[in-house]
Each structure stands twice: as structure tokens, then as C-alpha cells.
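Support request from a user on the community tier.

User writes: "When I paste my C-alpha cells into the form, the page sometimes reloads and wipes my input. The last time it worked, I copied everything first. Here is what I submitted, just in case something in the input itself triggers the reload:"
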């Protein structure tokens, strides 16, 4: 019966991140810098709120968009943090993680043949959905611009078919963000264009050198904001995301969401309310630790002679594979596992523009980082000796 499967589904593949993780996860004594998951536990008070929800039998369907209490808390959160103003009754949807929010947004706004402009390299979760909609992903090479996805790079790719620009920042896999000046320029340019902006801001609470700024604060009428609690509150498995959009857009996205999942998990919604209220600043402790790790890893990578852009946020480095290592990114990552027992994600998982790089997640302890980077340094030293001889 496989011949009857939707061809668009047959043509997409499992995420390269997961594919590589699954390939090597069984190995013993492996230090993994692969998965983008905080190594901190969910805050205790948030866990207790989930437990209380179960005890109180809060286990039924909620409003399709989420409980009104949680929607109000979400709107209060983004107003206080990012100066965004949304109506909780009609301009926010609680989703099953940010991934579902991206899915329902694309399924609402994309039609056959529409074009979506994305940076390259980029997280692999967008392109398959775009293709399943019959739309066309258009990648912009941002490598020579220090991984900054700026208006000047975007302009040449805009056509009459352009339906959406994807702005993921801070970025996975590069950790690079956008400045307020860059966002204002983009907002001014797109103000009179019939083009949506999909702003994936899931790492907004994990910025290091300056506060996060959302393009929606300048261009709300065209922007769909994606956010959630997976990274900010170490709640990946709770699957709570948020989609913010003007009412005239959100009301249509809500229909797709309703037929997709009915509503987000009721128990997780109770925990999410606690996270956004009493736990509004829970990310600060994690961010301080990530900042220390960023500085340590950056210095170690530089000392190894590796070319890398220091990330503005998130918990990734996107590292250029040295020219002395004559391997593509997948073979490099596989060889690093086999010879050094260190796992990173091949850059090819992040579009063709990621080839020649690898992603290193520093969402792990300082001790683990030291051990893994020691192994990597020894591996690169040995490879260089082999090349020279």
C-alpha cells in the first residue's frame, strides 16, 4: 500500500538532527553535544502545579485556544518582556509546542506555488511543512554575512509569489540574533507588502548581550509570532507553545489548530500558567550558566583554530570544519564519534548551506563540555598530523 502514500510525504525525511542522534545514541562513553534541550530540570514550582492539576482532575478539554487564564498570562508575559500587545480573547493560541504553532501557521497562510524565504543554514523544521503544502522554500545564503539574515540579503529573492519570510532568532543552529535597527528596517520595508512575517522567537528568553526585540513590536499587522516554554523553562516534554497574531489572522489559524489537536494538554496548561506568572524570570538562572558556558566554549574553539561566530543567544555554536579535514559534515561528525566519542550535528542537517559546518550544543554541564572539547581538540590535532604526513 506504500504506493498510495502522499508523494509529498514520501519526499521528506526525518530531521537530520534526530537522524544523527539516533544513529549514535547507543554508543558507550559518548559525550553528546547534539540535542537542543536544556539540561536543567523544569522548575520545581512548575512541576508542582502540574501535579496539582492532576489531583484536581483538571484533565478535560479546554477552550480550543487554551484556558483564558493562560492566554492572559501569555499576553502579560510578552507585554512585559517584549512590549508586545495582544488580546488574550482572540490573538493568542496555546499550541502543542512551538512546532505545532509553525505547522498551523504555514497550513493557514500557504497555497500551492507560494514562496517562503528562509535563511540558510536554518533549523530543519520549516521546509518539510512548506513542501507538504505545495509551497516552495527559497533559501538565502547568510554564511558570508556572519549568519545575519538582513533585509539587503532578502530583497533580491522577493517575487510576486513570495508569501512569507521566516525570521528565526536567536537562530538555531547559529545562535545569531537581529538588532533593533535591522528589525526596524525590515518592518518599514514590508509594511506595504502582502507578505507575512513568521517570527520564531522560541529562544527569546535566552539572549546574552542585549534584550530580545520582536519585529511584531514594529509590524504586528503582518507578523505571526511563535514562542513557547521548551527553552525558557526547560519544559520540552510538556509541549506548550504559543502563537500570537492579529485577530484577523489568528481566527483562521485557530480553525486549523482545532481540527489538528482540539486543544493543548490541560495539565501542561496549568503548569504553563505557573511558569508565566510566578516563574516569569525563571530563565535568568539558566541564562547566567549558559553565558559562562558560551564564553568557555568560544575560547576553547578559538584556541583550536576553529572559525566560529559567537552566538547572541540560544545554546549553540555553528562551527566551520577546518580545511585540513577533507570530510563532508556528515562524515566528519561520524568520524568524530568513532574516533573521539564526541557527537555533534552535521551542518548538512540545516540545509545545503550548512554543509562544511557542525552544530555544537552547550546545553550540558561545564564538566561535560571540558571533557568533550578535550577529546575534540585531541582528535583535530591527530587529524592535522595525519594530513601533514
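"...and here is what came back when it finally went through:"
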Amino acid at each position: 500500500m506504500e504506493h498510495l502514500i502522499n508523494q509529498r510525504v514520501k519526499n521528506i525525511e526525518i530531521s537530520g538532527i534526530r537522524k544523527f542522534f539516533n544513529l549514535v545514541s547507543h554508543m558507550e562513553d559518548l559525550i553528546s553535544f547534539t540535542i537542543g534541550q536544556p539540561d536543567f530540570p523544569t522548575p520545581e514550582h512548575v512541576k508542582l502545579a502540574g501535579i496539582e492539576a492532576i489531583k484536581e482532575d483538571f484533565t478535560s478539554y479546554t477552550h480550543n485556544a487554551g484556558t483564558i487564564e493562560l492566554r492572559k498570562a501569555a499576553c502579560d508575559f510578552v507585554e512585559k518582556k517584549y512590549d508586545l500587545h495582544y488580546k488574550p480573547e482572540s490573538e493568542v493560541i496555546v499550541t502543542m509546542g512551538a512546532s505545532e504553532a509553525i505547522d498551523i501557521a504555514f497550513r493557514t497562510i500557504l497555497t500551492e506555488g507560494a514562496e517562503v524565504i528562509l535563511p540558510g543554514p536554518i533549523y530543519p523544521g520549516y521546509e518539510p511543512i512548506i513542501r507538504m503544502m505545495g509551497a516552495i522554500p527559497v533559501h538565502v545564503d547568510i554564511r558570508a554575512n556572519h549568519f545575519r539574515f538582513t533585509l539587503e540579503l532578502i530583497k533580491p529573492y522577493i517575487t510576486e509569489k513570495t508569501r512569507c519570510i521566516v525570521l528565526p532568532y536567536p537562530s538555531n543552529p547559529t545562535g545569531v540574533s537581529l538588532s533593533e535597527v535591522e528589525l526596524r528596517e525590515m518592518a518599514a520595508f514590508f509594511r506595504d507588502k502582502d507578505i507575512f512575517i513568521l517570527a520564531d522567537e522560541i529562544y527569546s528568553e535566552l539572549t546574552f548581550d542585549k534584550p530580545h526585540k520582536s519585529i511584531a513590536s514594529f509590524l504586528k499587522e503582518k507578523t505571526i509570532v511563535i514562542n513557547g516554554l521548551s527553552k525558557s523553562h526547560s519544559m520540552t516534554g510538556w509541549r506548550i507553545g504559543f502563537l500570537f497574531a492579529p485577530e484577523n489572522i489568528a481566527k483562521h489559524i485557530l480553525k486549523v489548530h482545532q481540527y489538528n489537536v482540539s486543544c493543548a494538554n490541560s495539565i501542561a496548561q496549568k503548569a504553563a500558567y505557573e511558569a508565566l506568572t510566578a516563574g516569569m524570570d525563571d530563565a535568568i538562572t539558566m541564562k547566567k550558566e549558559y553565558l559562562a558556558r558560551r564564553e568557555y566554549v568560544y575560547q576553547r574553539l578559538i584556541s583550536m583554530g576553529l572559525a566560529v561566530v559567537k552566538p547572541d543567544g540560544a545554546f549553540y555554536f555553528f562551527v566551520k570544519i577546518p580545511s585540513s579535514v577533507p570530510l563532508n559534515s556528515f562524515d566528519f561528525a561520524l568520524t568524530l564519534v568513532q574516533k573521539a566519542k564526541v557527537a555533534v550535528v552535521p551542518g548538512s542537517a540545516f540545509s545545503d548551506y550548512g554543509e562544511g559546518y557542525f552544530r555544537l550544543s552547550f546545553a550540558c554541564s561545564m564538566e561535560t563540555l571540558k571533557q568533550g572539547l578535550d577529546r575534540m581538540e585531541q582528535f583535530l590535532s591527530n587529524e592535522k598530523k595525519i594530513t601533514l604526513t
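Agent notes: The reload is a front-end session timeout and is unrelated to the input. Residues 366-388 form the longest helix (23 residues). The chain has 13 helices and twelve strands. Escalated to web team.
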